[in-house]
Design goal:
3 helices, about 50% helix
């Protein structure tokens, strides 16, 4: 499935900032005609995880990059 540049930006923002899943994107924006498989490939590629370690009392936190 091919997404326009505007669609890619919209998907990235909704997934990262609002925590939308692929199913919720399809439900909220039915006029776009997106399918679950195409969106899951976009959603999975948007979030890269890194571990931050804070010294002192050992605390680890996962944050999205």
């Amino acid at each position: 499935m091919v997404f326009s540049s505007e669609d890619k930006i919209l998907i990235k923002n909704l997934v990262l900032l609002k925590g939308y899943s692929s199913r919720r994107l399809i439900k909220e924006l039915p006029q776009k005609g997106w399918n679950k498989n195409g969106l899951e490939s976009r959603c999975a590629g948007n979030v890269k995880w890194r571990t931050l370690v804070f010294y002192g009392p050992l605390r680890r936190r996962l944050t999205a990059v």
